[in-house]
What we know:
- It is a single chain.
- By secondary structure, the chain is mainly alpha-helical.
- About 60% of the residues lie in helices and about 5% in strands.
- It has a five-stranded parallel beta sheet with strand order 1-2-3-4-5.
- Strand 1, helix 3 and strand 2 (about 60-70) form a beta-alpha-beta unit.
Amino acid sequence: INFANLDSETATARRQLMLATQILKHIDSDQPIRLLIAECERPLTIMSALYLAHKFGIADMIDISPLFETSYGLEHGEKVIDQLLQQQVFVDYVTTRGRLAIQTGFSDAGRFVGQVAANMAIERLQLKILRSLKARIGTHVDVLIFNTHGESLGRGGAQAPMAQRQAWLMTPYVRHVAAEMGIGLYHQSSFQGGDGYRLFGTPSLARATMRGLLAAELAPPPADCADDPFYQQTDFSLDLFLELKGWHETLLADPNYSDLIDLFGSNLLPPTGSRPTKRVLQAGNQRRGPSKIRAIAHNAILQQLGFLANVISGMGRAATVDFEEFVDIHQRSPRLRQCLDRVLTAKRLGSLNTVLAYCRLADPGFWVNRAYHGKQPRNQRALRRLATHLRARPRFRDIQQTVWSLRDDLVDLYRLSDVIGGQSVRATGDSRSQLDLLHAIRIAVIGDSLMTICRTPNIAESNQYSNEDILSLGLSLDFDSAADIIRSAFGPSAGIDGAAELTEVETYSSDTEGNFAAIEAEVLAPLAANKVLIDRITQMISAHYGAHG
């Protein structure tokens, strides 16, 4: 092939393999290329890639790496690999390469089954693949596992010592099992977003990070990790996993939860990166809920609403399946403590009262009550207008149902944390005062912005947009689009060609410009200033979660 073939090819898979061929041919032939297959769920997908690699003559220089991240992929990924290992052409391929390469997605898996259940599922998948490999072709082929994750709790990362961070991605038990089997296990992990700056921003930081990584990866797993009751009492660990996974799948399939995530869309988030917030899906593969948006956006929205449901929720309810056994095993199991510590760490940052406060912005009763008490005479018209607008578009009660469901689960988590001892996860006093202040200020600024939008004069019926459209945009925090409509409706027009040469005297233009100047001063300028403050608070809240990217 040549670059003309590459340029004219439209099929994505062929283009990727052709591009790999040209890179190996013209740029760098001494390093293999890793071909990632995202959301892999079928062996045929991998075999198709292998066929193309053979066709282009690069099968010996490419590692085809399926990424298991969907609920189906995590549950059936081992069967995908096992079926591949029954195909001689695939066995010959991995034998020639000397390795089986796979990838797991902690970040994306969290929007399918929750972060803690995803971690358990990924560990189970890694163990099953190791056993399948040994059973099918022996131990002469190594396993390369690339564990991708994000920078914060909701995407598989943690603000923790490097040893703890790596032990979450590749547990000591998986390392122990691979060593016992005699299979070479190579672990790779990613550093995304702000972690690139936080951990590698200076030479000294980079050296410290690398030393921590080497120490974590080269240290042998604890000799007694196989005796952990979490792995010995498999009925308990399986029941816990299935209950936790099922709880999150129910939550994520709930249209009320989707409404909560879509309360402000992605407008609380600054635009970052080159990829759209919503995933582009093939026809016939439509999804509802968080799986339709990218994991980064889903997690960031939960951060900004004040409660990482994808980490915190479900564990309390799952523990009640056998509460006494959970408490007993927790005392003796480093693995169970690792999982629960993750939940409790996220809870110390989270508050459902904060979520409910944001939801109240969509509650018509909230606005009409403020008008009723009459403490803001200047805003009476705006408050009543917001209430009327929201009564015609009811969604607060549905969103509220999700908050009650999350709160019901917290009752069990509070009971659990009280029984096992340690620091309380209930927010009291000054334990979360900075976060609470940031949220409170932002909610007040959002409320002020909505009342400011209500000061917009009535738009002519001939305009394609109405005042109700502007208010709807404001309630979704799309202040830029609202401002654009206001400018187009009331701003000075471009005028006609040759207007400057007209000699007839007129005063109409100055009157129009004066009207727009008032709108600019009373509506557009305050709205722009408020948006700057809202965006700044967004970044400050993200920093509390260690999410600097």
